[in-house]
Design brief:
Length: 193
C-alpha cells in the first residue's frame, strides 16, 4: 500500500471523526438526542426543499422517496420511511406527522407475482389530508384516501378510505373513533368503550 495514500486516508478519517463528534456533542447538548452520522451532516429542511415540499417541512435523510410525491407545509416525515409515488401521485397534506418506519405505496406487484409476470402491476394514487398523524410502522396501501384531521394508530395497515377526523387502527385498519377539535382543545372519542 502506498504510505502517502494511507496517510491521506487516515487524515481524512480523523477529520471526519472529529466533525462527527463535534456535531454529535452539539446535538446532544441542544436537543438531548444522538443520531446516526448521516443525519448529523444532512439538513432535513433542505431535503424537503429539494423535493419541492412546502415551507417548514422536514424529511429525514434515510427516508426513501420514489416517483411523484407532493408534500404540504410544516409536515414532518420521520426516519426509515418509504414514500412511493411510482404508481401515481402520493399527496401528503400540511401539518402532518408521518412517523418512523411508515411505508406508503401507490403500487403493488401481487397480481404480477402470482401470475408469473403475466399480469401488470396495479397502480393507484394515495392522498393524505391536512393535519393527519400516521403512527409508527404503519403501512398505507395504494388507492387509499385519509381524510383531514385523522389519526392512524401504530402498526396499522390501511387499505381503504378513512373519513375526515377519524381514529383508525389495526390490520386492516378500522375506524374506532373520531377526533373532536374545539379551539386549541383536541379530544379523542372512541365508539366502543
Amino acid at each position: 500500500m502506498n504510505s502517502k495514500k494511507s496517510k491521506h486516508s487516515d487524515e481524512f478519517y480523523q477529520n471526519l471523526l472529529s466533525t462527527y463528534k463535534q456535531q454529535r456533542n452539539e446535538l446532544k447538548k441542544k436537543w438531548d438526542r444522538v443520531l446516526p452520522f448521516n443525519e448529523l451532516i444532512s439538513d432535513r429542511w433542505e431535503k424537503a426543499s429539494f423535493l419541492n415540499a412546502k415551507n417548514g417541512t422536514s424529511i429525514y435523510d434515510n427516508s426513501y422517496i420514489f416517483g411523484k410525491v407532493r408534500i404540504g407545509k410544516n409536515t414532518w416525515i420521520g426516519p426509515f420511511t418509504i414514500l412511493d409515488g411510482s404508481g401515481g401521485l402520493l399527496s401528503i397534506g400540511s401539518n402532518c406527522s408521518v412517523s418512523t418506519g411508515v411505508q406508503i405505496y401507490t403500487h403493488n406487484t401481487v397480481k404480477w407475482a402470482v401470475s408469473g409476470g403475466k399480469s401488470d402491476y396495479e397502480k393507484k394514487p394515495v392522498k393524505i389530508g391536512d393535519n393527519c398523524y400516521v403512527g409508527p410502522n404503519s403501512i398505507i396501501g395504494m388507492g387509499v384516501t385519509i381524510g383531514k384531521g385523522s389519526v392512524i394508530g401504530t402498526s396499522s395497515f390501511v387499505n381503504s378510505k378513512i373519513p375526515p377526523h377519524s381514529i383508525a387502527f389495526g390490520s386492516p385498519a378500522k375506524v374506532v373513533g373520531k377526533v373532536i377539535i374545539k379551539g386549541k382543545t383536541v379530544n379523542f372519542e372512541y365508539f366502543n368503550k
